[in-house]
Design goal:
469 residues; mainly beta; four-stranded antiparallel sheet; elongated
Length: 469
């Protein structure tokens, strides 16, 4: 090679190095050439985490990668800032789609993605159901079966379908024919069932105890509960007593005692939870008392303006998570000790498993109340805000909303008239709402620990299992 050629080659290499080195340096620092703007820009990425293993990730229709088998997550890096159509899918499952932005030097998180199976297993659990109750742990059912003018009340285990007869129409054979009693209250922990019925225009009650075996079972008529008694309650902390409400007084009826004894006066509403009475007084204060009536705590600092002609319901989860419903108006106990008005026209509410969010709904809308917005990640497409709680509109439907439960801390399962649906609560872009199945006028119950969905429709009871599996 001549001296001139060597010089030319050296100069060319130097020029190429001077041109390429900055580009390589930019790429190594997370920059990329934006062909539309014809300039280098700092890139970003997506962090994807799903409930499904080996889910496929597509950006703008182009396959990028799969989530990992162990952590169910993936990081897609070096993306030019802009909006991307994200699609996550897996064979045999309904796909998830959303348009989300990528920002320079930031990772956009897509977490807690749940893909629903296209085909779910369900079976007919029982027919000719007149009424049913579900045990607090969701493992058992108490059913009233109507069959050819004969009725039967029994328990059914959801774990092994074992059945146990409690009482049948033959109990009343010596008296006038009677329709099946109503299932008023059930406490599996203390093996007690309270039934109510009407006879000769009077309210009557039966207490069934120790029903696990025929030898130990006791059926006790309760003749000392007045007709005006309301909200009759059994509690695990006192297996020999029941509680009821009458004329603004909470009363306790103990087994073997002829007359009930008054516990608390000037009460507007009450509930019994974990061996305590949570009750709203006529003065507007919410009290926490023992089962003997002694006051343990005044929960709110400022009295609530009670309207005596309104109906009140207390939703007490713990001392710092308390809701009060005045007819269909929802209030939340703030850190200041006052009840703040949240919304009107409320038909139901349910607290998330982690107790940091509340879902509440009217006839046609579902809302989320975020109880820790200042600690929340940028999940709703907004920056974190310094406030005690935040209301978030989730969705509106043209048909009436029925029941609603938390499927996961980030998904709801509910029915809109005949249709059972699952929705995420990530309000960025559009919601991913999956249709599960349709029944005629269903009511539903979901047990998250067991992953069971119960559907009661047309006097039949259906069981879905492994929705999350």
């Amino acid at each position: 090679m001549t001296k001139k050629k060597r010089l030319f080659f050296s100069i060319t290499c130097i020029i190429l190095f001077l041109l390429v080195a900055p580009i390589l340096a930019l790429y190594s620092q997370g920059y990329k050439l934006d062909l539309e703007k014809m300039r280098f820009v700092a890139t970003g990425g997506f962090y994807v985490q799903t409930e499904n293993t080996s889910a496929q990730i597509y950006l703008d229709g182009r396959f990028e990668r799969k989530t990992g088998i162990l952590q169910n997550s993936a990081l897609v890096k070096n993306l030019i800032p802009g909006d991307y159509q994200v699609k996550i899918e897996q064979e045999g499952f309904l796909s998830w789609e959303k348009t989300l932005p990528i920002y320079s030097q930031k990772i956009t998180e897509i977490k807690n993605i749940f893909l629903l199976r296209k085909r779910l297993r369900f079976n007919l659990l029982a027919k000719n159901i007149r009424e049913y109750l579900i045990s607090p742990d969701g493992k058992e059912l108490l059913l009233t079966i109507d069959n050819e003018e004969k009725w039967l009340i029994k328990t059914v285990s959801l774990e092994n379908q074992e059945e146990r007869k409690i009482i049948g129409a033959e109990y009343f054979e010596e008296r006038n024919p009677i329709a099946a009693p109503s299932l008023s209250n059930w406490h599996p922990e203390t093996k007690r069932i309270l039934l109510s019925y009407t006879e000769n225009g009077k309210n009557e009650y039966l207490l069934i105890k120790d029903y696990e075996t025929e030898e130990n079972k006791k059926i006790i008529p309760l003749n000392n509960i007045p007709d005006q008694a309301e909200k009759i309650t059994l509690d695990a902390s006192d297996a020999r007593a029941l509680f009821f409400f009458q004329d603004k007084t909470i009363l306790r009826l103990e087994e073997g005692i002829a007359q009930p004894s008054p516990l608390l006066n000037n009460a507007i509403s009450y509930l019994i939870k974990d061996g305590e009475i949570i009750w709203l007084s006529k003065s507007g204060f919410l009290y926490r008392s023992g089962l003997s009536g002694e006051t343990r705590e005044i929960i709110n600092r400022k009295p609530f303006p009670v309207q005596e002609d309104s109906n009140y319901q207390i939703d007490f989860y713990r001392s710092d998570v308390v809701f009060l419903r005045e007819s269909e108006t929802l209030y939340y106990l703030s850190a200041a000790g006052t009840f703040d008005k949240i919304s009107q026209g409320i038909k139901g509410l349910v607290l998330a498993p982690d107790q940091t969010r509340l879902a509440f709904w009217s006839n046609n809308e579902i809302w989320i109340l975020d109880l820790i917005p200042d600690q929340r990640e940028n999940y709703y497409g907004e920056e974190n805000i310094d406030q005690e709680y935040r209301e978030i509109f989730l969705s509106r439907f043209s048909k009436k909303i029925g029941d609603c439960f938390w499927l996961t801390p980030y998904h709801l399962i509910f029915n809109v008239e005949d249709d059972i649906k699952i929705t995420e609560i990530d309000t960025r872009d559009r919601l991913n709402v999956f249709g599960l199945k349709s029944f005629k006028h269903p009511s539903i119950f979901f047990n998250r620990e067991r992953d069971w969905l119960l559907v009661f429709a047309e006097n039949n009871l259906f069981l879905f299992d492994s929705i999350l599996d």
